């Protein structure tokens, strides 16, 4: 039971840290989209505005799940999939080559941080499910 609690705490923490990162990133993009678009080499700053808004919505969803008495593993699994989609999109953006050097580095660093969240969340979910199977035996 103690292992189950540790894995649940790991999942909750991973979701909350992901929430904070996504929320801060969203606010930075929302409030700095004009200035950042020049640094990133984007000709359409509204892309950053939209990404910022979506990140804030995502952060709220992560927060609501993490603050539940029992974290919903289905929603946490969906968060892993969203993180993987973000990583795939980031790699695609890097291959298109339309960003500046600063933009490429920012996307690469952010994608690696998101990868860490996805791995931690996936690991915790997997351990929770393994623990539930063991308890049923």
Strand content: under 5%
Helix and strand run: HHHH
Distance, first to last CA: 14 Å
Q: Biggest β-sheet: count, sense, barrel?
A: none
Find the count of extended strands (DSSP E, 2+ residues): 0
- Our count of helices gives 4
Helix/strand-derived category reads mainly alpha
Helix percent reads: over 70%
The low-confidence parts are 133-137
Label the overall shape.
elongated
- Average per-residue pLDDT, rounded, comes to 91
Give me the Rg, rounded. Answer: 17 Å
Give a nutshell description of this structure.
With about 140 residues, the protein is mainly α. It has helices at about 1-40, 45-65, 75-95, 100-135. Helix 1 runs antiparallel to helix 4.
Structure description:
The protein has four helices and no strands. The longest helix has 39 residues, at 2-40. It has helices at 2-40, 46-66, 73-96, 101-136. α1 packs antiparallel against α2 (46-66) and α3 runs antiparallel to α4. With 137 residues, it is an all-alpha fold.
Write the layout of secondary structure elements.
Blueprint: H1 2-40, H2 46-66, H3 73-96, H4 101-136
Helix pairs in contact: 1-2, 1-4, 3-4
List keywords for this structure.
137 residues; mainly alpha; 88% helix
């Amino acid at each position: 039971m103690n292992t189950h609690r540790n894995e649940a705490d790991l999942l909750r923490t991973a979701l909350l840290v992901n929430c904070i990162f996504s929320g801060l990133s969203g606010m930075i993009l929302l409030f700095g989209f004009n200035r950042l678009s020049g640094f990133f080499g984007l000709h359409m700053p509204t892309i950053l505005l939209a990404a910022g808004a979506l990140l804030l919505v995502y952060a709220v969803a992560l927060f609501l799940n993490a603050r539940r008495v029992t974290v919903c593993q289905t929603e946490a699994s969906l968060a892993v999939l969203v993180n993987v989609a973000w990583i795939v999109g980031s790699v695609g953006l890097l291959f298109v080559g339309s960003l500046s050097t600063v933009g490429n580095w920012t996307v690469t660093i952010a994608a690696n941080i998101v990868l860490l969240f996805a791995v931690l969340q996936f690991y915790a979910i997997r351990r929770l499910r393994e623990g539930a199977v063991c308890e049923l035996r």
